[in-house]
Amino acid sequence: MNTLILGATGGIGQALARALAGRVERLWLSGRNAPKLGELARSLGAEAVPAELGSGLEVASLAQEVGPLDLLIYAAGAAHKASLREESQDGLEHLFTANLGGCFLALKYLAFNPGARVALLGVYPDFVTVPGLGAYAATKLGAEALLQTARKEFRREGVRFTLVRLLAVATGLWAPLGGPPKTALPPEAAAERILQGLLAEPPPEVWEVR
Q1: How many domains are contained in the chain?
Q2: CATH number at residue 24
Q3: 114 burial type by CB count under 10 A (0-12 exposed, 13-18 middle, 19+ buried)
Q4: Confidence at residue 107, expressed as pLDDT on a 0 to 100 scale
């Protein structure tokens, strides 16, 4: 199984990489932090392919290097808190690239084998459509709409899509928000629960992790 994790240096991405190491035939890891990515890949016997998800050229180059995929996990993401009137252009662009734009470019350029699986780490809408998370909610829920469209467009290619709905996971993503809640799942536990759905046959269209 030719597998790529985008956002592999994040908390959930790293946990997924460790959980998949030795369980798939070939594991590619991608992220922005090249030194951290390389160290993680070496420790797992995986292959590192650094890429900036906001660059079409870099994502296209990544697609050529990894070849047709059997499993793609989009684990990249970013979060911060700001009201609609306080949100900066730079902040909005950062969230857009990590949560939505990178996903769009990945689906545009990556190739898939028949029967391939694509997973997007999403959210529970009721928990993010709250004051201060407008930009985050818009980009994450926009990615869900993109996934629904891709599911229809890629049907003839036999690609199957799973939206993974996640509650809180104790990762660095929570740092700008004051830290994770006490009920947050450890990344390792979240990764195992995510893979239960992704590796099921057939993979569910929506997989809820609580």
Answers
A1: 1
A2: 3.40.50.720
A3: exposed
A4: 98
What's the whole-number mean pLDDT along residues 130-145?
Answer: 96
Separation of alpha carbons 77 and 65, rounded Å: 23
* pTM passes above 0.90: yes
The secondary structure of 112-163 as a DSSP string is EEEEEEEEEEEE-HHHHSSTT-HHHHHHHHHHHHHHHHHHHHTGGGT-EEEE
**Average pLDDT of the chain to the nearest whole number:** 93
Strand, helix or coil for residue 175: helix
Give the separation between CA 65 and CA 73, rounded to whole angstroms.
17
Q: Please, what sign has the CA dihedral across residues 41, 42, 45, 48?
A: positive
Q: Are 29 and 14 in contact (CB under 8 A)?
A: no
- In this predicted structure, the answer to whether residue 27 has a pLDDT above a threshold of 80 is yes
Instruction: Give the count of beta carbons closer than 10 Å to the beta carbon of residue 149.
Output: 11
